[in-house]
Specification:
Elements lengths: L8 E6 L6 H4 L6 E5 L9 H14 L5 E5 L7 H10 L4 E6 L5 H5 L5 E5 L2 H5 L1 H4 L5 E6 L1 H8 L5 H20 L6 E2 L8 H14 L3 E4 L3 H10 L3 H16 L5 E3 L2 E3 L1 H13 L2
Parallel strand pairs: 1-2, 1-8, 2-3, 3-4, 4-5, 5-6, 7-8
Antiparallel strand pairs: 9-10
Helix pairs in contact: 2-3, 9-10, 11-12
């Protein structure tokens, strides 16, 4: 299993496009998500499941995530049957429109919960305590629709309010930093970089992406700067010399929380 703290970019690939599966692993994303939900129309769901099953059978050395349809969807049960048949290939499952702790714990897999409804935000405090939860991720597009938000500063404020909740609950429950949602205009790489910088400053650890061109931008944005990385490595070296006890570094007292932060920074740079 990969280090969850090193998750920066997760690349969606439509389950109905098997010709893209193998290539997706060449773009240096932190992980690949084979998608059974929004990227696949209703008439292609069964075919997409078959494609994923065949890919898992023929590529046993590769592991990936699968985004399944929400528990309220008529496709949910068939998605579960697929997951059971490809367990060795799964890094985890992304649950669409996750809204409760019960929904997450009903899955016999590690789960990335995609928070994209008002109810999911409302239940976040309990949901984040699910025993099999890997991480939280933010579904800004569907959430904006569910809340009836209109373009403007008010929409931005509401989404930032919801993002903050994911960051706080991730920290309180010792989860990895949450993943920001997709940036829909995959041709606007400057806009993506700007959004990632804001998300990083809020405490997000990475982002979801819908196009290979977005991977490098996201990885760069969420990687620690050379200056910060050098600081973290020096702190860890000094911590070894002091047996992880409190020590002085350039006039600053370095204790366990700072050492753990340094460790997290180095991990994210991997």
């Amino acid at each position: 299993m990969m280090e969850l703290d090193s998750l920066k970019s997760l690349l969606f690939v439509p389950g109905s496009k098997p010709e893209r599966f193998l290539k997706a692993f060449s773009f240096k994303a932190s992980g690949v998500i084979l998608d059974l939900e929004d990227a696949v129309d209703e008439d292609s769901k069964e075919l997409a499941r078959n494609h994923i099953k065949a890919f898992a059978r023929d590529n046993k050395a590769l592991q990936f995530f699968v985004r399944i349809n929400s528990i309220k969807s008529r496709f949910y049960q068939d998605d579960l049957k697929l997951l059971d048949s490809i367990k060795p290939s799964l890094l985890g499952v992304m649950l669409s429109k996750a809204q409760s702790k019960k929904e997450i714990e009903a899955l016999d897999f590690k789960v990335i919960a995609l928070i994209e409804t008002a109810l999911g935000i409302s239940n976040l405090k309990k949901l984040a305590r699910a025993k099999n939860l890997l991480a939280l991720s933010f579904g800004s597009l569907d959430l904006a629709l569910d809340l009836g938000l209109e373009k403007g500063r008010g929409k931005d404020l509401m989404l930032e309010f919801c993002q903050a909740k994911l960051v706080v609950q991730s920290r309180v429950n010792n989860l990895p930093s949450p993943l920001n949602g997709v940036y829909a205009n995959f041709k606007d790489l400057e806009g993506l970089a700007s959004e990632c910088e804001v998300a990083k400053s809020m405490g997000f650890g990475g982002a979801l992406c819908i196009h290979p061109s977005q991977v490098e931008v996201i990885n760069k944005a969420f990687n620690p700067s050379p200056k910060v990385l050098a600081w973290a490595r020096e702190i860890l070296e000094l911590a070894k010399l002091h047996n992880n006890a409190v020590f002085n570094y350039k006039g600053e007292m370095i204790d366990l929380p700072v050492i753990l932060r340094a460790k997290s920074i180095v991990t994210k740079a991997l």
